[in-house]
Amino acid sequence: MRERQSLDDGINGLIRLETQLNDNLELIEMGEEEGDDGIVREAEAALKELRTEVTRQQIESLLSGEADGNDTYVEVHSGAGGTESQDWANMLLRMYTRWAERHRMKVELMEVHDGEEAGIKSATLLIKGHNAYGWMKTESGVHRLVRISPYDSQARRHTSFSSIWVYPVIDDSIEIDIKESDCRIDTYRSSGAGGQHVNTTDSAVRITHIPTNIVVQCQQERSQHKNKAKAWDMLRARLYEAELKKREDAASETEATKAEIGWGHQIRSYVLQPYQLVKDLRTGTESTNPTDVLDGKLDPFMEAALAQRVYGGKEAVEDID
Predict the structure, then answer these.
(1) What is the DSSP letter of 68?
(2) Residue 319 has pLDDT above 60, yes or no
(3) 20 to 30 A Cα–Cα from 136, which one of 103, 197, 228, 268?
(4) What is the CATH number of domain 180-250?
(5) What's residue 258's pLDDT?
(6) How do strand 72-78 and strand 157-168 relate by DSSP bridges?
């Protein structure tokens, strides 16, 4: 059904674009024949908007990876820097939540570890929607924020880092074998909202896959049993994503252009002071309106990063425009 829906969306989208193109071309011809410049300008403006939609659908047609159509997990981790970085991690959590809501996707908060004073130490989102992983996979990496700190009484400029890790939800058709002997399971009390229950029972679950050192955790449910089942699903998804990345790296001839997932390897900078600029360091895509970006307007950055993955290099991102 998901594959059928994807095909329907693609075909109907193409038909809609062709119809709008022909309608606006006819309007321009009619306006020129009647000498009505207003109709011509209106149709030309519609064609410019149509061009933007065509570019987006062209990019979306590149989402042909075996997991691109799946739902996705998004992990947010604050970096060194205490309250500053924890507040930045919370801002990123809101940014991706807003992006998903803008695209009418469903968002579930799987787990969250609050900061001591403000923000979060880490959190995991589950985003459900068409091509959720295909779009979000371009966001994995380190994100850097420069601003005047609201937590500094001397109003000094601070630089904060947080990392994003994205991996797809896998369905029953994909088999991932995990030996329980390779895993360590810990239970602990949930943090954050949830009432008295989360503070008095060890319902949250953390699973560590010892051979790969991958750690997943879930505290969404009140039941430890349900949290454990979801944590196993998350672990299978993480191992699957690691295998996808391994195959992609082995097949790629442009490895040098890829940003590593690690501190000191930022993929994007968000500068709020002394000027306002968001810049993707992989593609060169920029925005002078950080407020809109932090409110979830990420499509230009995602589209450019996706085009670069497929075609390689900044030049390819400009060419596809």
Answers:
(1) T
(2) no
(3) 228
(4) 3.30.160.20
(5) 38
(6) antiparallel
- Mean pLDDT over residues 205-218, rounded? 90
**Cβ count near 106 (within 10 Å):** 12
The per-residue DSSP string of 199-251 comes to: HHS--EEEEEETTTTEEEEE-SSS-HHHHHHHHHHHHHHHHHHHHHHHHHHHH
**Bridge-based pairing state of the strands 266-271 and 141-148:** parallel
Distances in whole angstroms, Cα of residue 24 to Cα of each of 40, 48, 56, 117, 315: 9, 11, 19, 56, 31
Structure tokens at 291: 């407020």
Q: Count helices and strands (H / E) in the chain.
A: 9, 11
Residue-level pLDDT at 278: 97
Most confidently modeled range among 10-14, 170-174, 314-318:
10-14
Q: Distances from the Cα of 307 to the Cαs of 30, 145, 203, 257, 261, in angstroms? A: 37, 25, 42, 13, 19
Confidence of residue 66 (pLDDT cuts 50, 70, 90): confident
Q: Find out whether the peptide bond into 300 is cis, omega within 30 degrees of 0.
A: no
Query: What ranges do the domains of the chain cover?
Result: 2-60, 72-170+254-320, 180-250
Question: Which amino acid makes up residue 252?
Answer: S
What token pair was written down for 100? 């998903």
By residue count, the chain amounts to 321
Query: In 3D, which of 255, 197, 203 has the Cα closest to residue 225?
Result: 203
Fold classification of 72-170+254-320 is Alpha-Beta Plaits (3.30.70)
> Considering the entire predicted model, what is its pTM?
0.69
